[in-house]
Structure formats: structure tokens, C-alpha cells
Amino acid sequence: MAENGTGVLRRSLNDFLSFQLDDGALDRLTWRDFGNGLEMSRLAREGKRELVLYRIAADASPAAFLKHEHLGGEFYLVLKGVIADETGEYEKGDVVFLDPQSVHTPRAIGETVVLVLWPAGVRLVD
Questions:
Q1: Full domain range(s) for residue 30
Q2: How confident is the model at residue 68 (pLDDT cuts 50, 70, 90)?
Q3: How many CB atoms lie within 10 A of CB 123?
Q4: How many domains are contained in the chain?
Q5: How far apart are alpha carbons 17 and 35 in whole angstroms?
Q6: pTM above 0.70, yes or no
């Protein structure tokens, strides 16, 4: 993985792995709709650790995600589309790790699906 000088590790998996999402299976998950083009499906949770899927509509509000801090870091895999934040743009197949106590405000570019792991939870930042 490469570090970009901002406490972010990133590696594209596209040179040895391909992803094909099953939209029907995604639709069968339980989704929390935030009403701004952003939906979240909790896949697993134990204490503060959480594994979630985010599904972001192509016409989602650029402010769909709130600024937040990752208490124990954040790991995510872009399964479809592009996620951008203060550290860069990450596309389908990119694996990203943000350091503990990292703060960012992500936004999706186009229709996007992201698998996210929070080892110690998140905290909203004003």
C-alpha cells in the first residue's frame, strides 16, 4: 500500500481482482435511508466495531456525509463509483485506510457503493 503523506494508505486491487455487485442481493439488505441520497446497511457490529455498506445515489447531496472522526481509523473498499475527500479520490477497487483520529468529509462522485470497517467507531465533528 502507498501512503500519500496524509495518514492515508491506499492500494488499488484492480490489477489482480475484479468486482461484480449483485444489485438484487444489495436490494434485499436492510437499508437506513438518510433522505439525502445516502443509505447505510449495517452488516455486523460488536461494541464500537462496525462493518457497514454505504450506497450513494448519483444525485445525492454533496453534503450527504457529515464531517466525522475515526477513533480507531477507518478501512474501506470502494465497490462501485468514486469516493472523494480532503485526501484525494478513490475509485472502484481501491482499498483505503485512514489513521486513528483522522477526520474527513467524504462525498460520492456518481452512484457509489462502499464497504466500510470502523475498528473503534466514529464521532461527528462540528
A1: 2-14+21-124
A2: confident
A3: 11
A4: 1
A5: 33
A6: yes
Look at residue 21 and give its three-state secondary structure. coil
Q: Does residue 37 contact residue 60 with C-beta atoms inside 8 Å?
A: yes
Cβ-count burial of 106 within 10 angstroms (0-12 exposed, 13-18 middle, 19+ buried)? buried
Closest by CA position to 124, among listed 104, 107, 98: 104
Q: In the prediction, which pLDDT does 5 show? A: 53
For residue 87, the SS3 value is: coil
Measure the CA–CA gap between 26 and 30, rounded to whole angstroms: 9
Give the domain CATH number at 78: 2.60.120.10
pLDDT-derived band at 1 (thresholds 50, 70, 90) equals: very low
% of the chain exceeding 90 in pLDDT: 71
